[in-house]
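Sample log: DNA-binding transcriptional regulator.
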Amino acid sequence: MKSDRLLSILLLLQTRGRVPARELAGRLEVSVRTVYRDIEALSASGVPVYAERGRHGGIELLAGFRTDVTGLTADESRALFVLGAQCTHAALGLDAAFGSALRKVMAALPAPHRPAAEATSRRILVDATRWRGGPRHSADLAALQDAVFADRRLRLRYRHGGQREPRTYTVDPYGLVAKAGVWYLVADRRGRPQLFRADRVRSARLLDDPVRRRPGVELADAWEVLRREVEERPGGLEVVVRVHRDRLDMFRRLNAAQLAEPAEDEAEDDGDGAGDWVTARLHYGSVREARQLLPFADRVEVLSPPQVRDELAAAAASVTALYRSPAGEPGEMAAKGPALGSALPD
């Protein structure tokens, strides 16, 4: 473990230059005192490393010192070759570069590790896209990448879900995130973090102004805040439903974020059909969000509260009216608005 840590320190210093001891300790998950002991061990082994104290001090290698040692263990070698989510690299225009990089890494690996790494590349495949995701508007990531790496502000024409006309925003980008096959731009807008789906960006133009990020905030920090807002969005409305067992697995998968607790058996099967149903409790932010249950048709029934039952009944009546009318002539209720709503974030 210590030898791996010493090598990690050496490679970090070689890549980053001067690094504060506290930052090294945080990255390696050890104490600052342990970092200084490791620095002494590196120095004793002939590595020209030194520490400078003070506000702008840190640990640094002597200028010009380099090492060609990869230091990869067998597991680290295998881990590199599980990066094969090719759709992600292709979207960034890095597909060919990724393949070339892996070939170079393979050539640099210690000979005993190469068979395992090669087997991993053939036996493990990462596909980040969802099943039956359907066609999406293609995302042009070129301008977004330019803004991210040039550290400049960005003028977006962006269409929100459910809106026809795009809006114009000036944002300060932190970076790009690929989540389940969907690319997002993470940026500050008026000093607050916001997510923008790349496939909803209608145009993106770099401005001459330098980016104005909040001090000390990195991409990972901004993404964590936004991710929590989406996944931990408070649901003030509790909905009690019963789910037919033949749709229970799908119900659990599609409503995992809303489920308040594991679905429980309503009753044992005593021949009257009661045992075919399971009771579950979900949390939603609004009555309309509960329309996500409509695709389950008669395999999910809302037991409470009454306003959610009324909402789903009205939506179902709207669909019924639509299909009872001649094709192309929506019924009276259907003409008032769409039957299905979406609670997914923009």
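Observation: The chain has eleven helices and eleven strands.
Observation: Residues 2-61 form a domain with the Arc Repressor Mutant, subunit A fold (CATH 1.10.10.10).
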